[in-house]
Amino acid sequence: MFVCRRCVRVLRSALLYVQPPVTPASPLPAGGAVDLRYRSVTTGHSSASLLPRMPSGRRRERRESCGIRYLTDHTEQKSASPHGQTSSSVLQQSNHKTAQGEAFKLHREASRSVSVPAAQTLIDLDAVPCPSPFEEISEEDAIQITVPSDLPPVTFTLRDYVDKSETLRRLVELGVNLSKLEQRPNVGSMLVRLDFQADVAPRLFFLKDLGVEDSQLGLLLTKNPFILTESLENLQARVSYLKSKKFSSESVAAMVSKAPYLLNFSIKRLDNRLGFFQEQLGLSAQKLRDVVTRLPRSLCGSLEPIKENLKVYELEFGFRKNEIQHIVTKVPKVLTANKRKMTQVFDFVHNVMGVPHSLIANFPQVLNAKFLRIRERHLFLEYLGRAHYDPAHPNYVSLERLVSLPDETFCSEVALASLDDFERFQKTL
Amino acid sequence: MATQAARLLRKLDGLFAVYKPPGVHWKLVRDTVESNLLRAVNSSPPAAPRFQVHFQLLSSGESSSSRELTVTATRLPALADHPLVTGPQFHKIRVGVGHRLDAFSSGVLVLGLGNGNTALESLYRSHVTRAYTLEGEFGMATDDFTHSGRVIERTTYGHVTQDKLERVLAMVQGANQKALITYSRVNLHSQEAYDLAVKGMLRPQDKSPPILTGLRCLCFDPPHFTLEVQCVNETQWYLRKLLHEVGLELRTTAVCTKVRRTRDGPFKMEDALTHNHWTADDIIPAVTHLRDCYTSVSSHPSFSIKHNTM
């Protein structure tokens, strides 16, 4: 095993460089500027035009020749007089001040430093462990030297931290999409501050006990990283609330993995929201549980659009109350769907295709389908003379067959035409 | 070595045509195409991760009494290059749109990918003509000249015959021919002008109002009628207004029920991709197929002659 001595020295100097005021520095480096300055301290004459450039030049020199400097340090400490030492340390101190007015400060401090007792300055200097380049260090010492990590203090991405931080590493291994998370405000710094063993692991175990599948954990945390900052008692209380409402444990797990923000809602809010659905839909408890389990998203989002959608179905579309209930239990997604799209589809299906309400209520998936798809297929069937949606008609096309079949099967089974013909027809629209 | 995604992206370079369905904004078409292509490009496997050397401190086996410590160097893939950390490799693809089609109209819409956008620009600087099929209906006038607008006026159309309609169309075409000669900036008494006019190559040289270079009636079945139009510098609004004015000229009113672009420069209806085919698998063959056409565009600026002569 071999650790280069120069490496160790560089490491040490890097460590020492952190505390500049107490670092002893040599008064005799090779460098014109520093020489000049030294003279100016001793003689008490300083030229303001020369001084401002000095600190940077001095610092650069320091960084470049750390090996040499430590060599001189070593000899200096043994031989130099206390007076010379103080003036050099003062020099060092003033290096870190601003250039402006430096000459005056330097002057003052140089004159003050004369009055400082020599013994005291010596003690100060001795307190600093200053290793010599020739000093033998044991292998174990050398191996224990840790390099301070070069993490940027400010960054725009978590990429810089991911190799250093245990939490981030584990999260990536879980399948959390950090590139998505870092785009959200405050999430990045929250994740960096988390400790894996203390913060993340208990919540992961909690989710796993709940029944969330392993493959879902990454997706869940990508959607809702804030579950990692929620307290465990709260999470437990919310789960037990859901269970007290007779949601089975499987359905709770499914709900949590489908709607990750569910457990961030307080019990009171959850209760209010369940109450809202009960009141608006007027469903039985079992059916409501079924609807909520299939679309837990509706519990987390805003309730105003849901209310609005229900009004649209009732007043604008003219569905009866029980028809709406039937539609919602069959396709819960209609609760959160876009009002404008639904109106467009319903308008076409009801007014252009002439399908009555009862048929739409029987197959509400048609409201979920794409408008372009419905229109193209209807116009194609109409062009072929096959657009019969009345179940009493001999060659009747059910809404299900119209909407849910893929293009090839639709052409071959419903339209009785080839796919090419259908495409050619699409280009005449 | 380029990654597979970069190689795929290099293939996506050129022009192709899509068929825009009516009722869809052109921007939505463009964004759909872009997101489909991005999905395809980003789904290809990422570049191999860099390797980082980690020094791990290990006590040398069971003989810890000797207090020997060993540092072992291991090479592990850097986590900073993990696809979950870096995110998708490409965030945008340059997709340019040729002559626009508004939401009401449908038809061939030319899209340019990557460096094809430059070709797209030079294509439109060469004043290519576009062909449209317009369907109209007599008997009603609306505020936006379409059949779905607010009705302003209702009229009778019993007196309109195909003969009268064609007379009006000929008049419109004559006026446009005159405008074309003015804007093409050639001396009317020169041999050059004669040669150009014989070949049908007269084109407006720079900015000009919309000019119809061809107009005829395809089908007359009152109240419905269909026109075929070739034109330059047009907008779909202008074409709908044209139908309205034809209606007024015939002492009745007309609205437009359909505007359909059947050709845009060299791009014909047969090459256009319908909206089920706006995926990378279908776009790449279309681009490569049309690349020959594109090279001929860049070498011969007068490539559109054969399409314009009817």
UniProtKB/TrEMBL annotation, chain A:
**Cellular localisation:** Mitochondrion
Read off the InterPro entries from this record. MTERF, MTERF_sf
Q: Would the keyword Transcription regulation be found if you checked this record's keyword annotation?
A: yes
* Keywords recorded for this protein, A-Z: Mitochondrion, Transcription, Transcription regulation, Transit peptide
The UniProt GO MF terms for this protein read: nucleic acid binding
Q: Does the keyword Hydrolase apply?
A: no
Q: Where is this region: Disordered?
A: 73-106
| GO CC terms, sorted | mitochondrion
Q: Which domain of life is it from?
A: Eukaryota
Q: Which Pfam families match?
A: mTERF
- Which GO terms fall under biological process for this protein? mitochondrial ribosome assembly; mitochondrial transcription; regulation of DNA-templated transcription
Q: What is its main location?
A: mitochondrion
Return the Polar residues bias intervals. 78-98
Protein family membership: Belongs to the mTERF family.
Protein name in the entry: Transcription termination factor 3, mitochondrial
Lineage, top ranks: Eukaryota, Metazoa, Chordata, Craniata, Vertebrata
The gene from which this protein is expressed is: MTERF3
TrEMBL record, chain B:
Question: Which Pfam families does this entry report, sorted A to Z?
Answer: TruB_N
Tell me the leader sequence span: none
Q: Which domain of life is it from?
A: Eukaryota
What Gene Ontology terms for biological process does this UniProt record contain? Answer: pseudouridine synthesis; RNA processing
Q: Which GO terms describe its molecular function?
A: pseudouridine synthase activity; RNA binding
All residue ranges annotated as the Pseudouridine synthase II N-terminal domain in the record: 92-235
Per the record, the similarity remark reads: Belongs to the pseudouridine synthase TruB family.
Its protein name is: TruB pseudouridine (psi) synthase family member 2
Species of the source:
Pygocentrus nattereri (Red-bellied piranha)
